[in-house]
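U., I forgot to send this yesterday:
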Amino acid sequence: MELGIEVSRDGDTPVVTVSGELDMSTAPDLSDVLDGFVAEPKVVVDLADLEFIDSTGLSALLGAHRAMQAHGGVLELRSPQPMVVSVVETTGLDAVFQIRLG
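Result:
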């Protein structure tokens, strides 16, 4: 399965909606998109339709989080599927990411 990426805005906040599979072959695509929002005060990554994530996908999100944090911004993960939440919790990244369920 491919990765779908759509960008919209919720007021002034960019919302990057991700669907499909975020893995080593698709993570660079998401990184490229998120790199364009590093200077934003907040970016929401909507994961409601993300079906799979591996360590490379997590690394892409973590890299975007760190880059935004360095600029005083926040990366919020919104509506992750239970599988994504499980992976994030297993890796301890739930203490790093701002996650909004539902």
